[in-house]
Description:
By secondary structure, the chain is of the alpha+beta class. The chain has three domains: 95 residues, Immunoglobulins (Immunoglobulin-like, Sandwich), CATH 2.60.40; 96 residues, Immunoglobulin-like (Sandwich); 93 residues, no CATH class. It is 16% helix and 37% strand. It is built from five helices and 18 strands. A hairpin with a 7-residue loop joins strand 17 and strand 18. Helix 2 packs across helix 5. It is flat, with a radius of gyration of 27 Å. The N terminus is likely disordered.
Amino acid sequence: MRLVSRVVMVAAVCLAACSDLGDPYLYRADCDRSTGGMDFGQVALGHFAERALLVANSGNTNLDGEVTLSDSQFTIVSGGGSFSIPPDGNIRVVLRYAPVDTGFDRAVADLGTGCPPVDLAGTALPPPEGPQCVLDPTSVSFGAIKINQTAEQTFQVRNVGLIDFNVDAQLIDAGPFEITSGAGFAALDPGDTLRVTVKFAPTVAGIYDTRLHIGSTCDTLAVNGTGSPPFTVSFAGQLQPIFNSRCTSCHSLNGDGGLDLRAGFSYANLVNVISVNYGVPRVIPGDPDGSVLYGKILGNPVFGARMPPTGAALTALQRQFVRTWILEGANNN
């Protein structure tokens, strides 16, 4: 009887250790914040102050949450809303304190159930005497815009002082830039805001820098942008045929890894979509080396076995199509 009992105990231990009885590995997201409290200091009415918060995940599964604020005098400039941070990943959240009444203000930045909240504080002072010009933002950067395409950005000129002043928005060296609204002479009374919109329309590749003169009371505003060559790789014309011939036998409806690469479905399954197997986006616009799709066709060990798994690897030209398409912004073109 004792021998039978021992055999039963040993069998139970062996069965408990068997991998096919379930995954014994503990999956957990761990939230790390760069700070638990942010002091915006003293800010005069009409002005604002900004601080950055880094939220990281040191766990081994995705950290999901949402950034919300408890007071309207504190706003989210970037990085707000819902987020899903993969293991070892992070997001940067920029918060702004723009008071509307004098006094001490407190608020809470809630990050969701997986992260402790962050306390916010700031002190609002009376507006300064005399004319006071505030530019928001303090510069305009268009980044890279394709030749013969256009982009517009708007900035604000605000009078946060107690005396009116005049503005006269003019580009010092226009080049491919144009003021489409808010140009010319205007009088700004205390508390008034003027919105100025600038268009960037490059026709030749290159880096462009200029400054926008607003008036004697305000600083000049830096304006810059890069004209980049037009798209050279078409998703529909060059990538989809690769998927059709080499990928859709496995990656179609209910395909491997939940990835459907059929025409009409492939783009929505790739760009900024988290891979269920690797916890990072399948395609990160502008970053082929960090994208699962490109790593898979190279056979990068970080992303497992090379794809396609059978037959010859993709040709050098096909791999270059994928890399260039991602570098050009992974557009649905």
